[in-house]
Amino acid sequence: MNNKLKIGVIGAGSISDLHFASYVKEEQAELFAVCDLNRERAEGKAAKYNIPHIYTDYRELLANPEIDAVSICTWNNTHAELSIAALRAGKHVLVEKPLCKSVEEALQIQTAVQETGKTLQVGFVRRYDTNAQLVKHFIDNGQLGSIYYAKASCLRRLGNPGGWFSDVERSGGGPLIDIGVHVIDVCWYLMGRPKPVSVSGNTYRQLGNRANIKNLNFYKAADYDAEHNTVEDLANALIRFENGASLMIDVSFTLHAKKDEISVKLYGDKGGVELEPELTFVTEVLDTITNVSPQTNNKSIEINSAFQNEISHFVSCVRSGETPISPVEDGLNMMKILCGIYESAAKGQEIRL
Ligand SMILES: NC(=O)c1ccc[n+]([C@@H]2O[C@H](COP(=O)([O-])OP(=O)(O)OC[C@H]3O[C@@H](n4cnc5c(N)ncnc54)[C@H](O)[C@@H]3O)[C@@H](O)[C@H]2O)c1
């Protein structure tokens, strides 16, 4: 009997390839349908990945009773509508980050998950990287003691993807909601998901998208367009947690920086760790501060295998009924943090969550 999960992918742009390629390798799932507003794009992916059903209206895809689960890889402003419609149509959902654009939308998605009992996994892909899981294993086993501080940066000199990413109505914001979400999430997850109590943030629009720059490539939306840009270039924030721990971040789409930078660092009372840019633990050995480099396949995130792990986990949770390690509650919590930072920046004051 063929009891593979039948998967529909909604949104066939840039990131969808990592979903398609990962599902292809899943023995317990098969790519069954693809949907994009742009028919040609959907047809292209259908041909590339041998997908039998093509749609341009997601409602028609959801009306297909054979489909068990969907990946939602569309613009951020559609995540809530599509997730809720999919859940109510009886489908399980893997939704790309961010969960949605606002706390209100996140609460509505959470209600739909609770009422339908279907699986919803948020695509916080950094959690699924093997190095992040290794660090979690070390932290869970007390190797770093209690984590009281974390610090993360994701700075692009030139990296506004244009198109919908730079249209605040469709994206919800710039680098904070697009790439800040990843580094805030992985820190928060590794810190043990403490309750956030306040945020203080700043956003800046000083450089624009630097569309004039030549000789340097960067990630672009499928419908790249540099004309319209209503999002911030840079955001920074301090997030305080109920247990006294704090997290500092800064993220940019454009910045006069010497080079792009990614760093994710956590500090505990027994030791520290740098997950990015290169996995290293810091500890004390016989009164000597000692850096420890684990021998792992990769020093930094390996994005293809991280996506493969994310998709495998989704397929496995759908089949077993277990709750994913990145459930809707975590997506909701992230929206409280992100929206709180934008509110803090707009008001010029700290926001209590
Ligand atoms: N996990 C990651 O590392 C990562 C990386 C990049 C993007 N993303 C997320 O993935 C999502 C898509 O990003 P992208 O870079 O692929 O963008 P993209 O612009 O390349 O592709 C988005 C596609 O969605 C389609 N679309 C939009 N609304 C639709 C609808 N209602 N029905 C059907 N199709 C629709 C568009 O036509 C487009 O083809 C975003 O939420 C983004 O935040 C995640």
Q: Any overview of this molecule?
A:
Pfam families: GFO_IDH_MocA, GFO_IDH_MocA_C. Belongs to the Gfo/Idh/MocA family. This protein has 353 residues and is an alpha/beta fold. The protein has 2 domains: 5-124 and 307-325, Rossmann fold (3-Layer(aba) Sandwich); 127-301 and 334-352, Dihydrodipicolinate Reductase, domain 2. It has 10 helices and 15 strands. The chain has helices at residues 16-24, 39-49, 58-62, 79-88, 103-116, 130-140, 168-171, 175-190, 303-320, 328-347, and strands spanning 5-10, 29-35, 53-55, 69-72, 92-96, 120-123, 147-155, 196-204, 234-241, 246-252, 261-268, 272-276, 280-285, 288-292, 351-352. The strands form 2 sheets. It has a 9-stranded mixed sheet with strand order 14-13-12-11-7-10-9-8-15, with helices on one face. The chain has a 6-stranded parallel sheet with strand order 3-2-1-4-5-6, with helices on both faces. A hairpin with a 3-residue loop joins strand 11 (261-268) and strand 12 (272-276). Helix 4 packs parallel to helix 5 and helix 5 packs antiparallel against helix 10 (328-347). The longest helix has 20 residues, at 328-347. It is globular, with a radius of gyration of 20 Å. The mean pLDDT is 97. Nicotinamide-adenine-dinucleotide binds next to loops.
Strand-pairing-aware structural class: alpha/beta
| Alpha-carbon distance between the two ends | 50 Å
Task: Look at the structure and name the CATH superfamily of the largest domain.
Answer: Dihydrodipicolinate Reductase, domain 2
Q: What is the alpha-carbon Rg in Å?
A: 20 Å
Separate helix tally:
10
Q: Number of domains in the coordinates?
A: 2
Profile the largest sheet.
9 strands, mixed
Q: From the 3D coordinates, which CATH architecture of the largest domain would you assign?
A: 2-Layer Sandwich
Family: Belongs to the Gfo/Idh/MocA family.
GO molecular function: nucleotide binding
Pfam family, one: GFO_IDH_MocA
Organism: Paenibacillus whitsoniae
